[in-house]
Amino acid sequence: MTIKLYENDAYLKEFEATVVSCEECKNGYLITLDKTAFFPEGGGQQADCGFINDAKVIDVQEKSGIITHKVNKAFEIGETVLCKLDWDTRFARMQGHTGEHLVSGIIHSMFGYDNLGFHMSDKTMTLDPNGLLSAEDIKEIELRANKAVYENREITAYYPEASALDTLDYRSKLDLKEGVRLVSIDGYDLCACCAPHVHRTGEIGLIKIIDFIQYKGGMRLTMVCGINAFEDYSKLHDDSKEMMHLLSASRDKVLDFVTRDHETIGAQKAEINRLSAEIAKANLDIKLIGSTLCGFTKGASFDDMRNMVNERLNEAQIVAFFSESENDTFSYIISSAASDVRDLVKALNEAFCGKGGGRPNYAQGKITANKDSILKFFEN
Ligand SMILES: [Zn+2]
């Protein structure tokens, strides 16, 4: 079994160890050491990265108590090596992981819910409490969690006696009877966990729940902690400054200005739509060919064309309107009050490499053609 140095000292950044085995594998080598501070992937947290001598640690996995490091260089068995963790990444994960314990513990004590899923990605984490929470509940949870950070509570990890386990009320995803490592956050949480955590809640830093959705009958919360929360805030602050500049708005007026502009743009879009419908109607060139009323215009939307077609359905057996959008591309609507237009639409699509369809007496689509060839099609 590999001695897990991170269990007793989560802050160990550098250590010496002896190489126990080294095997070639796909794209590298798998090595085991007598002891390690590299945390293997597990419990929703990624594997630590760093260096063993000058070999890059690409992955760390644990199987039956043996921890295997995937590296990009071979080592001699019995060799003493100097190992260095990528400490910034590891500490950010310790902040996040401990933040997750705190928030899950608070949710458990407030609502009795358990966290059924925990996943850590590069910057954010998700946790899945198995019950519903309102936006107000989440604000309250977040506030309590941040107050617990200011209280700077002690965090300890220990292996209790198997007999003592039955008497303890702790959160756990697995029903283990022995070898259970408990992580306690004074006054807030007791949870079975094998990962490294910070020593005091103050080190977690800011805790922010940045998103939440209903998920599998419960919730999925997305959260940032510590340095990742600081970076998230910095990004939002930079964006906000840029928006203040663009809108010539003070910091507290950005939302008011965006809301005002959003409403103005909505009204302008509606006016543009109304005017383009009017222009399309004014440009309409119509011609009755047999029992089909053909109409041609430019730049009309399907909605505009539908309105124009519906207004004229009683003027001919079939109404076929075309609107030119780009060179030689026409969108079309073909409709009839009484006839089935599907065969006609099929023939039109075949003649002009078109796409489209619809119901028996209504179809819309696009063709590549010019006005003369479309007129000739209907004449024939
Ligand atoms: Zn943990």
E-strand count:
21
Question: On the 0-100 scale, what is the average pLDDT?
Answer: 95
Task: Give the CATH topology of the largest domain.
Answer: Threonyl-tRNA Synthetase, Chain A, domain 2
**Top CATH class of the largest domain:** Alpha Beta
Layout of strands and helices, then pairs:
Blueprint: E1 3-4, H1 5-8, E2 14-25, E3 28-33, E4 35-36, E5 50-52, E6 55-63, E7 66-71, E8 80-85, H2 87-111, E9 115-120, E10 125-129, H3 135-150, E11 155-158, H4 162-165, E12 182-185, E13 189-192, E14 207-215, E15 218-225, H5 226-247, H6 254-282, E16 285-289, E17 292-298, H7 302-311, E18 318-326, E19 329-335, H8 342-351, E20 355-359, E21 362-368, H9 371-379
Parallel strand pairs: 1-4, 17-18
Antiparallel strand pairs: 2-3, 2-8, 3-7, 5-6, 5-8, 6-7, 9-10, 10-15, 11-12, 12-13, 14-15, 16-17, 18-19, 19-21, 20-21
Helix pairs in contact: 2-3
Bound molecules: zinc ion.
